[in-house]
Amino acid sequence: MRGFRAKDEDRDRFVELIEAAYVDGQLNSADRDLRVGRALSAETLDELQTLTRDLQPPPGAVTTTVPGVRAPGPRMPLLARLVGGFVAFSFVGVALVIGLIVVTMFVALGDGSTSSESGSGPVFESGLADPEVVSEDPPATPTFEMTPGQVRAFMRAYEEQFGTLEVYEAGFYPHRVGVQVPVRGSRPRMERWSWTGEWTQDTDASAVTGPTERVDLGTVDVRRMFANIETARKTLNVERGRLTHVLVNRWFDDQPSVNIYIGNQFNESGYLKTAPAGDVVRAFPYET
């Protein structure tokens, strides 16, 4: 692993582990800030591993194993490698002979069989079923998960797509982000877009409804937002509460805010209002 250059997704993955360890009580605030700063500026995978080597991965934390990279194991003695190579070569030869026999049998059967005899659908000269009825696994679709790394990835994608980080409102949900995107012009206009790992335009340009002031997503401290999500879960008096969504917006003359909503299966809910930098403004716990 030493010497391999780190990518943004590698840095995000290690930052998530550091933040999870902080929430888990393994790190104090100063140590967390120091490690996050070094992780974001790390140039190699070895630097990232050094920052997290002494941490216990909390339950549900992302893995920091780097795909496709494996430490070299001890080398086998020369004689053992030669014997192993001979055995492997022999198995390949036997497999080729068996494969040739099987192909010959299929061709012979295909020449004398009909679809009614096989009962398995139309058969063509090659002896194979109609390729149009062969099912294939659907291609993988992009997904979004509410994690610090993917929130940062969304912000990078938003700026690349729209050339700004300003929104009228951004809603972060467990598996998607919904945004009200400002449209240039003399009057306030917006378009609604969704992000799930790729962009979908939900509406054409229309008059702004809801929050009428813009918010710069670049002012949101993602690290502190996730720390505040844990605080909201523990303090809002919502039994077995889980994050439902986070709204970033600004109403009229009010200051921009990050509103963290916690709910449960009994329709009990509360929310924590914070500043973009992470300072708690007010808590609205569930009242029995």
The amount of helix comes to: 25-40%
Count the DSSP helices: 7
Distance between the termini: 54 Å
Sheet having the most strands: 9 strands, antiparallel
Name the assembly state. Answer: single chain
User: Which structural class do the helices and strands define?
Assistant: alpha+beta
The ordered string of helix (H) and strand (E) elements is HHHHHHEEEEEEEHEEEE
Number of separate structural domains: 3
User: What is the strand content?
Assistant: 15-25%
**Mean of pLDDT:** 78
Q: So what's the overall shape?
A: globular
**Rg from Cα:** 28 Å
Uncertain residue segments = 66-76, 112-135
Q: What's the total number of strands?
A: 11
Any chance you could write out the topology, listing elements then pairs?
Layout: H1 8-23, H2 29-41, H3 45-52, H4 78-112, H5 115-118, H6 148-162, E1 166-167, E2 169-173, E3 176-183, E4 189-195, E5 199-201, E6 206-207, E7 215-216, H7 222-235, E8 242-249, E9 257-263, E10 269-274, E11 280-284
Antiparallel strand pairs: 1-7, 2-3, 2-8, 3-4, 4-5, 4-6, 8-9, 9-10, 10-11
Transmembrane segments: 82-109
Keywords: Membrane, Transmembrane, Transmembrane helix
Protein name: DUF1707 domain-containing protein
